[in-house]
Amino acid sequence: IAGITQAPTSQILAAGRRMTLRCTQDMRHNAMYWYRQDLGLGLRLIHYSNTAGTTGKGEVPDGYSVSRANTDDFPLTLASAVPSQTSVYFCASSEVAGGLETQYFGPGTRLLVL
Amino acid sequence: GQNIDQPTEMTATEGAIVQINCTYQTSGFNGLFWYQQHAGEAPTFLSYNVLDGLEEKGRFSSFLSRSKGYSYLLLKELQMKDSASYICAVKDSNYQLIWGAGTKLIIKP
Predict the structure, then answer these.
(1) For residue A35, how many other CB atoms are within 10 A of its CB?
(2) Contacts of A31 in chain B (CB under 8 A)
(3) What does the pLDDT look like over A3-18, one tens digit per residue?
(4) Are A14 and A32 in contact (CB under 8 A)?
């Protein structure tokens, strides 16, 4: 079934640890995105990639890094986790960046940093 | 700054009609999206408006007035499965999506 997968589904992480959230899509979409969703707030863009080999910073990039080595994968790394990074993380993709393209979302990763 | 406002929560009765409003102030406008998000799940696309007027898609309709910075999502013949959060999002002049916090819709029998 075509779509976006994320791993892990959920994670409890000790503060200071490094963590990589995985995201893979099989729709051959050019653009991919990482969001965090916190209670009472809208989705906030962390990083994005308009096409393989390029990445950009979103609204809340500090403490996170991404890479886009190929079209399908867009991992998000927390170099040294802090409790304020407790959130639900959604990966999304769209056929192209910008324009009228709809974004499709993965199921999310629920991260608790203690 | 950029801002999207929508009510935090609304309650409606099964079989009825509900209108969820969204007002926005963004740097530029390249379309307005409505997404549905059930609790514990990912957002899913519902509708898209770029021109003024009403877009109808089955039981759901979405309206846009660019001059007023206003949109609404109209849900008819409400079903229990419509209980979810409804999120308004606007593409700004840089084609970045600005997201509202979502309106939690509670459907009562």
Answers:
(1) 27
(2) none
(3) 999 999 999 999 999 9
(4) no
Q: Mean pLDDT over residues A10-28, rounded?
A: 97
pLDDT confidence of residue A102: 86
- Residues B103 and B109: their CA atoms lie apart, in Å, by 19
What's the CA gap between A113 and B95, in Å, rounded?
32
State how far residue B16 is from chain A, nearest Cα, in angstroms.
26
- Over residues B40-66, mean pLDDT: 95
Q: Is the link from the previous residue into A8 a cis peptide, with omega within 30 of 0?
A: yes
Q: What is the mean pLDDT of residues B31-50?
A: 94
% of chain A surpassing 70 pLDDT:
95
* Residue A57 amino acid letter: K
Count of residues in chain A: 114
Tokens of B84: 């979810």
Structure tokens at A102: 């709809």
Size of interface A-B (CB pairs under 8 A): 46
User: Given pLDDT bands bounded at 50, 70 and 90, which one contains residue A2?
Assistant: low
Chain B CB within 8 Å of residue A100 CB: yes
A80 SS3 class: coil
Contacts of A102 in chain B (CB under 8 A): 33, 45, 48
B7 touches chain A (CB under 8 A): no
